Amino acid sequence: MSGDALRPPQTQDPPGLQSRMEPRPDCGETSYRGHDRLAGKVALVTGGDSGIGRAVAIAYAREGADVLVSYLDEHEDAEDVGRYVEAAGRRVVLAPGDVSDPAHCRELVRRCVEELGALDVLVVNAAYQMTRESLQDVPDDEWDRTIGTNLSAMFHLCKAAEPHLRPGSSVIGSSSVNSDSPNPTLAPYAATKAAIANLCASLAQLWGERGIRVNSVAPGPVWTPLIPSTMPAEKVAEFGANTPLGRAGEPVELAPVYVLLASDEASYVSGARVAVTGGRPVL
């Protein structure tokens, strides 16, 4: 897939809307073709309204899975995803709310099991970040929000999901290239992404005897609403240009990895951190 390294300078208020981005991210709406690799499975995807989560939700549906789409309050984007899931012939539950709230994490799992009948695949993808040039510029509540949204949510979701997971179930955490090579202006975010990779590795060992697989994906720069809503406009314009491939990734380019890790084809893949970075090494 080709793509332009440079995009128009732009900003949004967080968490950002996919529908207001220029150009719109490619989440596979017209390109992703499924092959029943997740037939009969039920997936819960956080941050499923836009970006990587949107691409994953669409791909999962076209691979045969019913999907609960968790999102904050971007109703228009989420409803659009819901239409794609239903067009693939699958059931969808749209679940707004803040994943930094432990009670909401438990409610997401409850709704998934009660309304869709199971929970086979948990994708913990929702994230928050903000660019800060100095540690002194990071407000205390911003640190708490970043930890709560990115890391604590994974703990609470996994804890709530555990009783419902079965042999063959898959949990996937969205880590980042920042887990290995942290951007100093994204220090709180980078710290959470390293912790997510570590937590996934722990859970893979803890749950392995039950046949539950846990992995993380480490994306590099990917064109999602998180970028124009959390970075200065001039950085948005050149976002991803410094990768070996010379551009940011599109969300659809991440979807096949999430599909593989959720599928029975990856039956011996657990405890891994899969890099999708445009050439930046993750050790």
TrEMBL record:
What family is it from?
Belongs to the short-chain dehydrogenases/reductases (SDR) family.
Q: Which SUPFAM superfamilies match?
A: NAD(P)-binding Rossmann-fold domains
Keywords of this entry: Oxidoreductase
**Ketoreductase domain ranges (all copies):** 41-226
State the protein's name: Unannotated protein
Q: What InterPro entries does UniProt report for this protein, alphabetically? A: KR_dom, NAD(P)-bd_dom_sf, Sc_DH/Rdtase_CS, SDR_fam
What GO molecular-function term can you cite, just one?
oxidoreductase activity, acting on CH-OH group of donors
Per the UniProt record, the source organism is freshwater metagenome
| Renumbered residue ranges of the record's region Disordered | 1-33
Give residue spans, biased composition: Basic and acidic residues. Answer: 21-33
Stored Gene3D superfamilies:
NAD(P)-binding Rossmann-like Domain
